[in-house]
Design a protein that fits this description.
Bound molecules: nicotinamide-adenine-dinucleotide
Helix content: 25-40%
CATH architecture of the largest domain: 3-Layer(aba) Sandwich
Distance between the termini: 79 Å
CATH superfamily of the largest domain: Aldehyde Dehydrogenase, Chain A, domain 1
Length: 504
């Protein structure tokens, strides 16, 4: 399926075939109401394809298909479920370049990034949970003599999964891999903006032998398909990744059948550089923390906090690196920063540049689309550095773009106060040579994840998630397996003599 043109121009690549229908019960079908949604290339605004639009009735069909598949899937030997996920991981690696191009085309992620991050991380996630399937054990509880009390972990049933547009390939693997390993069936709604890689993964799942109905994909809008998943009486659990505002709506909608919830929401990551940090590493790490994926990451280091004694030196180097980043067509292997994923989002980020100016912030660089006429139709924004005050909106609200707010601090106490001074608590990083300070800060930061002398490390074994308005529940690792199972406590009277409760 190589759609590279005869000229071998990587930017002329087109997918040789595309799945653009709903995937329900193993079949590619149109929506009941027959609508479609255009999927746009964020590089130039062209339409890549029109996908079938799922509405509430399609979610209902998908839930029925998942319910039908559940008894066989949940009772399949865990090793056999795992084997299918391992095959899927291999398959993804075989198609690394194709999947990477598809993700680049639809999301704007530079192809380069998809090859070192998105696709490999997706494959290792399926592999990790494929291996996990038959190693996630129950336990025996030491209760009173004569009783055996054991704890089983049961699949919860049909799970609904709702994902955003920023890392579709990776985030769907973080959700689907543990859910499948634990024996659940899935109704997943990718973002209406970036559904293509999820549909391709569903196709691969069928190719490697995951039974029909185990995974159902219903791309559609949040207010229709998403809302139906959140309220559906037969969906036992919803795993949601998206904004804090939508997360609250999902919580309310889930109340009807008290479904289990897992929420991965917004963030405003503090990235703190102390005076004793190794500056070259901190500059490079801080650039990755915010510029990777155009800053469209919930864990982006979007608040850069510099000790006042090193601020000038750091800023000079950070600015130099930032201004050297190559913006361009994401399909070009030389591109280091692509467009934002949609026009609407580009405007939102530009609006925040205006907010920064109104608040008296100094725009050190960026703050506008690039001048390059070749990028004029795309959703590009130049990487933007703003000096701001901790109380400014641009230091409190999630911009979710190539936009970093820089602040200075004079001592550790002030650094901690600024770092913990937002409603969010997802990921934070710090750069220091002082191990005592590093551990002290790691303990004191209001965050679900802390990186010391690095930023944005993720691994399928390491729990991912936040506190405060960043949500609750965890993806990855054993924590994810707990999220996708119910504990069942079983009591067996092996040899207990129980005196009668009502002696007669
Ligand atoms: P969003 O909340 O607008 O949408 C997320 C998903 O929810 C989409 O699939 C959307 O269609 C769906 N949705 C919208 N309204 C809904 C409703 N009423 N009921 C059910 N589903 C609905 O977020 P977005 O703009 O797509 O993504 C950006 C946000 O996601 C940012 O706030 C970012 O921080 C957050 N995010 C969080 C994490 C994390 O792991 N914590 C990761 C990535 C992104």
């Amino acid at each position: 399926m190589d759609g590279m043109s005869a000229s071998n121009d990587p930017t002329a690549w087109k997918p040789a075939s595309l799945r653009n229908k709903l995937f329900i019960g193993g079949r590619w079908v149109d929506g009941v109401e027959g609508g479609t949604i255009d999927v746009i290339n964020p590089h130039d605004g062209s339409v890549i394809t029109a996908i079938a639009e799922a509405k509430a009735a399609d979610v209902d069909r998908a839930v029925e298909a998942a319910q039908k598949a559940f008894p066989a899937w949940s009772s399949m030997a865990a090793m056999d479920r795992g084997r299918l996920l391992l095959k899927l991981a291999d398959r993804i690696e075989e198609e690394q370049a194709e999947l990477g191009r598809l993700e680049a085309l639809n999301t704007g992620h530079p192809f380069r990034d998809t090859q070192i991050l998105d696709v490999p991380r997706t494959a290792v996630t399926y592999r990790y949970f494929g291996g996990m399937a038959d190693k996630f054990e129950g336990s025996v509880i030491p209760v009173e003599a004569g009783f055996l009390n054991y704890l089983e972990r049961e699949a919860v049933g049909v799970v609904g999964q709702i994902v955003p547009w920023n890392f579709p390939l990776m985030f769907t693997s973080w959700k689907m891999a543990p859910a499948l390993a634990a024996g659940n069936c899935i109704v997943i709604k990718p973002s209406e903006i970036t559904p293509l890689s999820t549909l391709r993964i569903a196709e691969m799942m069928q190719e490697v032998g995951i039974p029909d109905g185990v995974v159902n994909v219903v791309p559609g809008y949040g207010q229709t398909a998403g809302a139906r998943i959140a309220e559906h009486p037969e969906i036992a659990k919803v795993a949601f990744t998206g904004s804090t505002a939508t997360g609250r709506t999902v919580v309310k909608a889930s109340a009807g059948n008290l479904k289990k919830l897992q929420l991965e929401l917004g963030g405003k990551g503090a990235n703190i550089v102390f005076e004793d940090a190794f500056i070259p590493a901190a500059v490079g790490g801080s650039a990755f923390a915010i510029w990777h994926n155009q800053g469209q990451a919930c864990i982006a280091g979007s608040r850069l906090m510099l000790h006042e004694s090193i601020a000038d030196d750091f800023m000079e180097k950070f600015l130099g690196l930032t201004e050297s980043i190559r913006l361009g067509n994401p399909l070009d292997p030389a591109t280091e920063m692509g467009p934002l994923t949609s026009k609407m989002h580009q405007q939102r980020v530009l609006d925040y540049c205006a907010v920064a100016r109104e608040e008296g912030g100094e725009i050190v660089t960026g703050g506008a689309p690039p001048d390059d006429p070749a990028l004029a139709d795309g959703c590009y924004v130049r990487p933007t550095i703003v000096r701001a005050k901790p109380s400014d909106r641009v230091c409190q609200e999630e911009v979710f773009g190539p936009f970093v707010s820089v602040m200075t601090f004079k001592d550790d106490a002030e650094a901690l106060e600024i770092a913990n001074g937002t409603e969010y608590g997802l990921g934070s990083g710090l750069w220091t040579a002082d191990l005592k300070r590093a551990h002290k800060f790691a303990g004191a930061l209001h965050a679900g994840m802390v990186w010391i002398n690095s930023y944005k490390r993720v691994n399928p074994g390491s729990p991912f998630g936040g506190v405060g308005q960043s949500g609750y529940g965890r993806e990855m690792g054993f924590e994810a397996m707990r999220e996708y199972t119910h504990p069942k406590s079983v009591w067996v009277n092996v040899d207990a003599q129980i005196p009668p409760y009502y002696p007669r």
